[in-house]
Amino acid sequence: MPTYMLIMRATEAALAASKEQDFEAIINAMGAYNESMMEAGVMVGGDGLSDPSEGFVVDFSTPDKVVTDGPYGEVHELFNGFWLISVADRDEAIEWARRCPMGPGTKLEVRRVTDESDFADFADNEFIQKEAGWREELERTHEG
């Protein structure tokens, strides 16, 4: 079953507008959305992100890999959080994305998470072969 990432994006104006809303109402709406995905058995994971001013950006445009503090500068939409859902297909991912209780000025970008089938042409690559073992190791590490 494919996994999709629902990426919350918002403009700075939308973020400012959300700070004027009843925060408990936002928590309740998002909680109900999360609960519906849990009850349907499609939610794999997800988290919100802190204020963009706490973040930093690593720019790979130069050999020195410049790190800058704060929001993303020239980007007009901010990445606020994400969900991972495992659903039958793209249409079901769209259906769950449409149910998300987000407000004006916000968007959800939905992207399929790649899996081993996306790298079938490179099946003999050392790191592709290690990938399955790493996934199992990560699952064990986070279970205990």
TrEMBL record:
<dbReference type="InterPro" id="IPR011008">
    <property type="entry name" value="Dimeric_a/b-barrel"/>
</dbReference>
<comment type="similarity">
    <text>Belongs to the YciI family.</text>
</comment>
<dbReference type="InterPro" id="IPR005545">
    <property type="entry name" value="YCII"/>
</dbReference>
<protein>
    <submittedName>
        <fullName>YciI family protein</fullName>
    </submittedName>
</protein>
<feature type="domain" description="YCII-related">
    <location>
        <begin position="4"/>
        <end position="115"/>
    </location>
</feature>
<dbReference type="Pfam" id="PF03795">
    <property type="entry name" value="YCII"/>
</dbReference>
